[in-house]
Design goal:
The protein is an alpha/beta fold. The chain has 4 domains: about 100 residues, no CATH class; about 190 residues, no CATH class; about 190 residues, no CATH class; about 80 residues, no CATH class. Helix content is about 55%, strand content about 10%. It contains 28 helices and 9 strands. A 5-stranded mixed sheet has the order 1-3-2-5-4. A hairpin with a 2-residue loop joins strand 8 and strand 9.
């Protein structure tokens, strides 16, 4: 008598199990009677667990599951309980966590709102949601983590208030709890953020860690029940470097911002003169706050405490000065919070699964370590590919159990390069119509030349060429765009010329070998007066363009003078009217046209071009004029001639400014 499909499938499963393995066990709550697919996952004890779930639900959450389960339909797979069975290599406990969150989508499953320990389900879901591309589930876990490590200052203040209230309640409890053992722990959060790439929780975790003393360890008994601690043993050397840099940076930035005084503000001077106010009291209070922030480990809380004081007890001041102080403190807090990712830097360039560590020094000799992926560097750079493929010596230095490579480049330059490689979807490296190229552009161009990263260099050069075009058509479009900006804001005084600086562009092109932007930059420079300096803005309408003339070398200035003279000479030569051509003679005789009028107009244009600093704009203005002459044939001739001269001049710019060598 033939056995049933279930018995046959069970015997088949038994054949695949090694000797001594446990018989497959159905999961207690995730073996659903109406499920249409069974997934089998191994357990740590050597057995297997069966999950009977719905293929449609898994496919809806994961494109990986959708493709995997769809492709297995045509395969002659195993059967169990009369339906298909699919083997997974993931641990059964991890699969259980994933399915629980799918079928019971409640944050309560992930963790308590405030908990010191991260439950295993969080790790399991983060790991498998990355593997199976389950973005919604991952976001649900990240949102729970962000309630413990907020991403905004307002959320941070609310969380701090809640914890303070919990501490207050303990004063009236006969058996107070150790709050530290019931509150989130920063070192574990940092490790989780690195391991599963959750950068949003890192700034708050690092800031909280910076408030703690390393002398108060989690494993050391404490007398004070409210003393917050961290499991410092979980932190790597890179974490501690980020922590030290962040603590120093917080102190310096806060001190710098609090030192700024508004005593020079005209409104405050008027207030002190007219009102019964002693401005020195406001200065005394700011000095006191500055002194405290330099000595505290919790700048944000110190500043917030002064915001809630009403009035300032030790030095009473008027309501106006009090508002000024509090507005300044709010601004400082917001700025400090926004700068946390930068202050605790390199958290995003030390990947837990990186297989190569790069170290470089900054200008002060301080070492920075980047843990990255060899395959990615090799993909972008043939130089890196050859360098990293060399066999390692037996005594080669390692860092965090991966090979360590010491680079001679500056750490800031390496950081700019790695950020451009790892985060290509960030805002443009060089935003359109930027006054001066940031230092990161110099770093990228120099290192892309050195390490032959052609793709990255091409992208940067394209962004530069958007401000310094390589064709006349693009130049005209850019000029129109800038004219629109000036017209829309021409009545307001601009503190300085915000548009691209030609001297900075020339310096960049010379240092980083970007010759394509030089013709446009030199032509624009030739239009400017050396009397117009960026530190002496003009109130004229339209805006007076300026250049940072101090950046130019003697070679640059010689090229500028040669170009200016050459433009005038070539323009004068090309605009000289030739009256001897047969076509013009026939037109003047047959159509009874006054040819002298054409000559007069061309001579006027030629004279104007000799006195104008912007030949291309002058020619374009005449070429687009509605009516130059009564005779439409002569008008078309002049218009076409001016267009030809403009194109010829643009083509000759490298020669005129001697840029070809």
């Amino acid at each position: 008598m033939p056995s049933s499909p279930q018995i046959q499938s069970l015997s088949q499963l038994g054949q695949h199990e090694s000797e001594g393995s446990h018989f497959p066990q159905k999961h207690d709550s995730l073996y659903l009677f109406d499920g249409n697919i069974i997934l089998m996952a191994p357990t740590k004890a050597g057995g297997t667990t069966l999950f009977r779930v719905h293929q449609s639900i898994l496919s809806n959450h994961s494109p990986i599951f959708a493709n995997m389960l769809k492709s297995s339909i045509s395969d002659e797979g195993q059967m169990y309980d009369g339906i298909r069975l699919v083997r997974l290599t993931d641990d059964a406990e991890e699969i259980e966590s994933l399915f629980k969150l799918i079928y019971i989508p409640s944050p309560l499953i992930l963790s308590q709102r405030l908990s010191r320990h991260v439950p295993p389900i969080v790790r399991h879901v983060l790991k498998l949601s990355n593997k199976y591309e389950m973005s919604k589930l991952r976001q649900a876990v990240v949102q729970v983590l962000e309630t413990q490590w907020p991403t905004s200052l307002a959320q941070w203040d609310r969380l701090e208030g809640e914890i303070a209230a919990m501490a207050w309640d303990q004063d009236y409890d006969h058996t107070p709890l150790d709050l530290d053992r019931n509150l989130p722990e920063p070192a574990l959060a940092i490790r989780l953020g690195r391991e599963f790439h959750v950068p949003s929780i890192m700034p708050a975790a690092f800031y909280h860690l910076s408030r703690l003393s390393i002398g108060h360890s989690l494993h050391i008994p404490r007398d004070a029940v409210r003393q917050r601690t961290a499991d410092w043993n979980l932190l790597t050397a890179a974490d501690l470097i980020c922590l030290i840099m962040g603590k120093e940076g917080l102190s310096m930035v806060a001190a710098s911002m609090l030192m700024s005084d508004c005593s020079g503000d005209e409104t405050m001077k008027t207030h002190w003169a007219e009102g019964d106010c002693r401005g020195c009291r406001r200065s005394q209070i700011m000095e006191q706050i500055h002194w405290e922030c330099k000595r505290t480990s919790d700048v944000l809380s110190t500043l917030r405490r002064y915001l809630t004081v009403e009035p300032f007890p030790w030095s009473p001041i008027c309501e106006t000065c009090s508002c000024v102080i509090k507005n300044q403190l709010r601004k400082v807090r917001q700025t400090l919070w926004a700068m946390l990712p930068l202050l605790f830097q390199h958290a995003s360039l030390y990947f837990f699964d990186g297989n190569i560590a790069l170290t470089a020094s900054n200008n002060f000799g301080e070492q920075t370590v980047f843990r990255v992926h060899q395959s990615l560097l090799s993909h972008y750079s043939t130089v890196f590919a050859d360098m990293l493929s060399l066999p390692l010596e037996q005594e080669a230095e390692t860092y965090d159990d991966v090979p360590l490579v010491c680079l001679p480049d500056n750490a800031e330059e390496i950081e700019s390069l790695l950020k451009a490689i790892y985060f290509p979807r960030f805002p443009p490296l060089y935003p359109h119509l930027t006054r001066c190229a940031p230092r990161a552009i110099y770093h990228l161009l120099n290192l892309s030349n050195k390490y032959e990263i052609n793709e990255l260099r091409h992208e940067v050069v394209q962004q530069l060429e958007a401000d310094w075009p390589t064709s006349l058509a693009r130049w005209d479009r850019l000029e129109g765009e800038i004219a629109g900006l000036i017209d829309s804001d021409g009545d307001s005084m601009c503190p300085e010329d915000p548009l691209p600086d030609p001297a900075s562009a020339i310096q960049l092109a010379r240092e980083c070998q970007v010759p394509t932007i030089l013709p446009a930059a030199f032509y624009h420079l030739s239009r400017l007066s050396i009397r117009c300096q960026p530190d002496k803005p003009s109130r004229c309408k339209p805006w007076r363009r300026t250049a940072n003339w101090g950046l130019l070398t003697a070679r640059d200035l010689r090229c500028l003078l040669l170009g200016r003279e050459g433009l005038r000479q070539v323009t004068d030569s090309m605009l000289t009217t030739e009256t001897g051509d047969v076509e013009s003679q026939i037109h003047w005789m047959v159509d009874r046209c006054r040819g002298s009028q054409r000559i007069e107009v061309m001579n006027k244009i030629r004279e104007e071009c000799q006195s104008t600093p912007d030949v291309l704009a002058t020619l374009r203005g005449h070429a687009t004029a509605e009516k130059l002459l009564i005779c439409h044939i002569c008008h078309s001739w002049i218009r076409d001639r001016l267009k030809q001269v403009r194109h010829a001049l643009w083509t000759k710019l490298p020669t005129l400014f001697q840029l070809e060598d």
